[in-house]
Amino acid sequence: MPSAQQGVVDELDLRILAALIDAPQAPIKEVAESVGIPASTCAFRLRTLRSRGVVSGPRLEIDPGALGAPVQAMIRVRLGNHSKDGVEALFDALAATRGVLQVFHIAGADDFLVHVAVADAAALRDIVLERITVHEIVRATETQLVFELREGAGVLPRPWGRGGRLSPPRPGSRPGPRIGGSPATAPLRRRAAPRRTATRSGAAG
User: At what angle do helices 28-35 and 11-22 cross, to 10 degrees?
Assistant: First the structure.
């Protein structure tokens, strides 16, 4: 059977990882018991997974709303040109902007997708006008408010119970934090310009 030593994530590794995702602060002994293996085996497997970069961290998750940034939004950024240096410079600038949670360089009509958390609508406007459209490479942006965010199932099945048997999560379990109550999003479009910005709004499709 393949093992972590051979550079392959096998079934036992997946069971250990799934247990850690569900309870990342659990002691090795508890993880081993939930999977049904000796603690020494579990500890060895984890050391091997960390040494190979499969597991990194620990990662601290912070609720932006608790720190005064309850408004989240996704900002689509479309570029006027795609020079490598310009794209990399903008990527770095976006990632370094306070309030930005994630930046995705994507294919399609848009070039970047920026996930932000801010205090209010004015702060959201400031990020768009003062941190994004000021770059000459940016041609247009579209901002969409996030009303609700839920954690996805991820790439591993959720636990299961003793014995290490995997099972899918129950429908409706582990809902994520609710950010608002409106049933639809309202996109705000902005076209970058040296001195003037035009705004167009409409219902999201």
Answer: 120
| Percent of the chain predicted with pLDDT > 70 | 72
Per-residue b/e over 44-57, b at no fewer than 16 CB within 10 Å?
ebbebbeeeeebee
- Rounded to an integer, what distance in angstroms lies between the CA atom of residue 63 and that of residue 47? 30
Give dist(CA 42, CA 112) in Å, integer. Answer: 40
Instruction: Please give the C-alpha separations between residue 169 and each of 23, 49, 110, 130, 166, in angstroms, as whole numbers.
Output: 15, 25, 33, 42, 10
Q: For the whole model, what pTM was predicted? A: 0.66
Contacts of 76 (CB under 8 A, 6+ apart): 110, 112, 113, 114, 141, 142, 143, 144
Q: What does the pLDDT read at residue 189?
A: 53
- Structure token digits, residue 165: 């048997």
Neighbours of 190 (CB within 10 A): 20
When computed from its CA atoms, the radius of gyration of the chain, rounded to whole angstroms, is: 22
